[in-house]
Fold this protein.
Amino acid sequence: MCPDCEDFARTVLLLGQLALYADMAGADLDFVDAVSPSLAVSLPEPPPGKFPDDSDPAEDS
């Protein structure tokens, strides 16, 4: 797996695990609020081919 692909996959996995943790009873929501923005910002550019060439995530359809 290419380094960018591995970083992207790892960060997406961590975001998913954080979302699951946030839904658990007794989750530390202050931790979730502190970590989630930093983790989302650290998400690297998706590897080529992950999304169609004509997709624009800034557009709301």
Remarks:
- Residues 22 and 33 are 9 Å apart (CA to CA).
- Residues 3-22 form the longest helix (20 residues).
- The radius of gyration is 14 Å.
